[in-house]
Amino acid sequence: MSNPFTSKRDTIYAVNLDLFAATCFALLSYYLWPSSYEWWAFGLYSIIMGLASFLSLISAFKKLRQERRRQKGIDEIAKGKKKPKSSGMMSEERMKDLGMLQ
Known about the structure:
The chain contains three helices and no strands. It is mainly α and 102 residues long. The chain has one domain (8-97). Helix 1 packs antiparallel against helix 2 (40-79). It is elongated.
């Protein structure tokens, strides 16, 4: 699970940037498509841009799903349905032994 204390704004910017990139790649792909067979290399560029658009769109949806899972976990903790888990490596007894607690 990602850090629950990161800003939601960062995720919003990242998703918007991915959607913008997907739109730019899609438009570039559309306008690069050749009108005749002489310009077949532009067809390759167009296909590559189309794939980049598709991958950018998938990346945006993955980030949205990750943000939704993060928010759902935070909401469960806030409502009291799920208690925060302590680390298995550090117990109160161990912290007392190390002098962190009295």
